[in-house]
Write a structure and sequence with these properties.
Radius of gyration: 15 Å
Structural class: alpha+beta
Number of strands: 7
Largest sheet: 7 strands, antiparallel
Strand order of the largest sheet: 1-7-6-5-4-3-2
Distance between the termini: 43 Å
């Protein structure tokens, strides 16, 4: 099977884009929604383009930290960040927010940054050792995790609207 390098999932949330964007761009919320991320520490809050953060992740018995950097913030439109481990690029994660009727279509996207050379092979190995997930399994785990995350974001946004 060919390796899949990117993925998107979306849902419609019964809240306006500004509300959903504000929730998602506060990285401290990720630990509440993601099935793998347990908490996020933003080094100099609040997050803005260029901000760095540390993510603490867990899946089953596996624990691993990631370093992140916010790469794009478009109020009420898009929020994007890159994560790395031990200085090796791992993934780009992001969210797009589009008005849909009285609500918001939220699209979560992921792009694998482990694309070539020895650094990519080292990052693949680290993912297998520390996160217990080889690249072939990562896409299925991400798809399930994204669906769970989006459901939880929708519940939070709807409860607060």
């Amino acid at each position: 099977m060919d390796r899949q390098w990117s993925l998107e999932e979306s849902t419609v949330v019964d809240a306006p884009p500004a509300v959903v964007y504000r929730l998602v761009s506060d990285l401290r919320n990720m630990g509440r929604w993601s099935p793998e991320c347990r908490s996020v520490w933003v080094l100099r809050p609040p997050a803005r383009t260029g901000s760095r953060f540390v993510g603490f992740n867990r899946r089953g018995p596996f624990l691993w930290p990631t370093l992140g950097r916010v790469t794009r913030m478009v109020p009420d439109g898009e929020f994007v960040f890159d994560v790395s481990v031990f200085g090796l690029p791992i993934a780009r994660w992001g969210y797009r927010f589009e008005a849909e009727g009285p609500g918001t279509r939220v699209t979560e996207f992921w792009q694998d940054l482990r694309t070539d050379g020895y650094r990519a092979r080292a990052a693949d190995l680290l993912g297998t050792v520390f996160a217990g997930t080889n690249p072939a399994r990562r896409i299925a785990l991400n798809r399930a995790g994204m669906r769970t995350t989006l459901e939880r974001i929708a519940r939070t946004a709807t409860a607060g609207a």
